[in-house]
């Protein structure tokens, strides 16, 4: 790695009342030992002692503030607009950068000019910071992700080209759960993406994470993201692929609404998924459809049983 021409990497940390984990997050960035670093913290007006932690390290920060904002995406965008780095990323205040991650990203950046983003793997840790044995993050593919309505990209291990970010636009501030998926889809539609099979971050799983408490909100967001993607990239998918992408989105929303106890919505979601041509193939989806439409699936099982009996008699 050419240390004389290191790319500036700008890290943005949004935070709100995460004092229990904030200092560990801050140290995971500062202890990278990366000389071309910008580090921004945007606190939403915490009342739990977070300010004392931030002020303790303020001499090593590029900028920080603590005041109410319009949500996580708004806080991150404020940092993106202030950043002067060629590479930008955000690190939530309960996640960590893995040791040496920024040097790995910088080297990949130097060896692969023109990429729109670099992404790697994330080690999942528990509330106490101990590894759970799970690793998340795989190679991004825009078409496959749209068709499945699944996000294989690990957000804390993803670093964006600032030029690509400015071309496609910053985070959509109306999204609160799936803004990362939306952003990398927009970038991936126009720029090459690079996947590194190395752990670049650690993500903490505990009962108060947004993924645990607000995942159901990502259902309608996925569908809106897909529809917006079609408008921005009308020729990226075939008409059949577009129907599959929407069908997968409504099927995913149906799963989430079912888990949240939204019985009416989950049935409507599945009906729309069927309209777009989706059929339950996985065991969990077969159970879901059976629960939504018991009479239909009971009749179908009876018909299949009688058909087998008649075939055997013949």
Using the alpha-carbon principal axes, give the shape.
globular
Based on secondary structure, the structural category is alpha/beta
Termini separation: 75 Å
How much β-strand is present in the residues?
A: 15-25%
Q: What average pLDDT do the residues reach?
A: 91
Number of strands: 9
Structural description of this entry:
The chain has 314 residues and is an alpha/beta fold. Helix content is 47%, strand content 18%. The protein contains 13 helices and nine strands. The chain has helices at residues 19-30, 50-56, 72-82, 101-111, 142-148, 162-168, 179-188, 210-213, 218-232, 239-259, 263-275, 283-292, 294-313; strands at 9-15, 37-43, 63-66, 87-90, 96-97, 117-125, 131-136, 158-161, 193-204. The longest helix has 21 residues, at 239-259. It is globular and about 75 Å long.
List keywords for this structure.
9-stranded mixed sheet; 47% helix; 18% strand
Helix-strand layout with pairing:
Layout: E1 9-15, H1 19-30, E2 37-43, H2 50-56, E3 63-66, H3 72-82, E4 87-90, E5 96-97, H4 101-111, E6 117-125, E7 131-136, H5 142-148, E8 158-161, H6 162-168, H7 179-188, E9 193-204, H8 210-213, H9 218-232, H10 239-259, H11 263-275, H12 283-292, H13 294-313
Parallel strand pairs: 1-2, 1-4, 2-3, 6-9
Antiparallel strand pairs: 4-8, 5-9, 6-7, 6-8
Helix pairs in contact: 1-2, 7-9, 9-10, 10-11, 12-13
Could you give a quick summary of the protein structure above?
With about 325 residues, the chain is an alpha/beta fold. The protein is about 45% helix and about 20% strand.
């Amino acid at each position: 790695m050419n240390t004389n021409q290191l790319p500036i990497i700008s890290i943005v940390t949004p935070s709100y009342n995460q004092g229990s984990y904030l200092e560990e997050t801050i140290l995971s960035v500062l202890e990278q030992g990366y000389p071309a670093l910008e580090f921004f913290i945007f606190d939403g007006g915490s009342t739990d002692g977070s300010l004392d932690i931030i002020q303790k390290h303020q001499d090593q920060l590029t900028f920080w503030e603590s005041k109410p904002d319009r949500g996580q995406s708004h806080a991150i965008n404020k940092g993106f607009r202030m950043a002067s780095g060629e590479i930008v990323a955000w690190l939530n205040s309960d996640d960590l950068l893995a040791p040496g991650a920024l040097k790995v990203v910088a080297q990949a950046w130097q060896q692969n000019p023109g990429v729109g983003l670099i992404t790697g793997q994330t080690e999942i840790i528990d509330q106490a910071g101990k590894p759970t044995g799970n690793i998340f993050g795989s190679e991004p593919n825009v078409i496959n992700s749209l068709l499945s309505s699944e996000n294989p990209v690990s957000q804390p291990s993803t670093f964006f080209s600032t030029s690509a970010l400015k071309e496609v636009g910053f985070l959509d501030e109306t999204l609160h759960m799936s803004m990362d998926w939306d952003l990398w889809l927009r970038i991936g539609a126009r720029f090459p993406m690079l996947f590194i099979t190395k752990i670049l971050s650690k993500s903490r799983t505990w009962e108060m994470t947004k993924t645990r408490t607000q995942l159901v909100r990502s259902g309608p967001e996925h569908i809106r993201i897909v529809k917006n993607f079609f408008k921005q990239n009308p020729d990226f998918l075939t008409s059949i692929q577009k129907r599959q992408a929407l069908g997968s989105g409504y099927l995913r929303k149906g799963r989430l609404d079912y888990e949240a106890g939204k019985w009416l919505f989950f049935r409507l979601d599945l009906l729309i998924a069927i309209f777009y041509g989706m059929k339950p193939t996985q065991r969990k989806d077969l159970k879901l459809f059976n629960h939504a439409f018991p009479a239909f699936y009971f009749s179908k099982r009876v018909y299949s049983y009688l058909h087998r009996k008649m075939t055997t008699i013949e």
